[in-house]
Amino acid sequence: MLLGVNIDHIATLREARKINDPDPLEAVFIAKRAGADQITLHLREDRRHMHDSDIKRIRESSFLPLNVECSINPQIIDFLLEVAPHRITLVPENRAEVTTEGGLDVIGNFDRIAEITQSFRGKGIEVSLFIDTQLDQICASKEVGAQMIEIHTGAYANLHLMLNSNLPRTHHSIESLNLPKEELKVALRDSIESLQNAAKEAKWLGLEVAAGHGLNYVNLAPVLSIVEIGELNIGQSIIARAIFSGLENAIKEMAKLIKG
Ligand code: PXP
């Protein structure tokens, strides 16, 4: 199983001050040393984290394949055709969302996605589509000419959080999942089954299969056991863990400079 590390949130932290630190490019070298197989990032229409110049610098300097997530917005597509990352992953995008909320509607945007796919594949750039587990969307992904799908694991991750963490007791509790434990357990089992079926169907159709969104250190095991999935793209949980596993060293270094 390959690991794509999504480094968007390094840029999120940089944008909190609008300076040049932390630099996502530095994370690329650390990710390579740490065993990542790919760098994944999302060029959002509102440029809330990654900017065009980040994509260019990372494309030029990275020793790892670069997978850029993007919407079907014409300006972004033209820019990425020029930059030519190793892969693009088309995702739905909604300005007001905190993160990508659902999968791409391939059926509803069939002609546009087919056109984009053809342009990128014509330049030797892989195309992946970020979709939910519906089988008709998987078939459409094949018909549209994509080589790969990335299955959205967000619904599974949300159920896992509501069942196995303190999220329901925080202000970020997911209202629609405020259900009795037994119901959550059934829904969680169903969501794993949907992931399994989607991965099987896609592989059977000849698509490569990735998965991602909301995956973390405690919810990974059922996804890892799906043999058809060849790659996981993980971001927020890695960056969140890095804040705590690296914070002690950062404070020690500063204290040493101050106190000698
Ligand atoms: N894959 C896709 C297509 C995404 O949109 C995201 C979030 O940007 C991820 C993977 C990574 O999700 P997370 O940050 O929750 O691990």
Automatic annotation (TrEMBL):
Cytoplasm recorded as keyword: yes
Pathway(s) served: Cofactor biosynthesis; pyridoxine 5'-phosphate biosynthesis; pyridoxine 5'-phosphate from D-erythrose 4-phosphate: step 5/5
Domain of life: Bacteria
Localization (cell): Cytoplasm
UniProt-annotated site: Transition state stabilizer, residues: 150
Active site residues according to the UniProt entry: 42, 69, 213
Keywords in alphabetical order: Cytoplasm, Pyridoxine biosynthesis, Transferase
Gene3D superfamilies, per database record: Aldolase class I (3.20.20.70)
Gene Ontology terms for molecular function: pyridoxine 5'-phosphate synthase activity
Chain positions recorded as 1-deoxy-D-xylulose 5-phosphate binding sites: 8-9, 44, 49, 99
Residues reported in the UniProt entry to bind 3-amino-2-oxopropyl phosphate: 6, 17, 214, 235-236
Broad class of where this protein is predominantly found: cytoplasm
Reactions performed catalytically: 3-amino-2-oxopropyl phosphate + 1-deoxy-D-xylulose 5-phosphate = pyridoxine 5'-phosphate + phosphate + 2 H2O + H(+)
NCBIfam families, sorted: pdxJ (TIGR00559), PRK05265.1-3 (NF003625), PRK05265.1-5 (NF003627)
Quaternary structure annotation from Swiss-Prot or TrEMBL: Homooctamer; tetramer of dimers.
Function: Catalyzes the complicated ring closure reaction between the two acyclic compounds 1-deoxy-D-xylulose-5-phosphate (DXP) and 3-amino-2-oxopropyl phosphate (1-amino-acetone-3-phosphate or AAP) to form pyridoxine 5'-phosphate (PNP) and inorganic phosphate.
Name listed for the protein in its UniProt record: Pyridoxine 5'-phosphate synthase
Lineage: Bacteria, Pseudomonadati, Campylobacterota, Epsilonproteobacteria, Campylobacterales
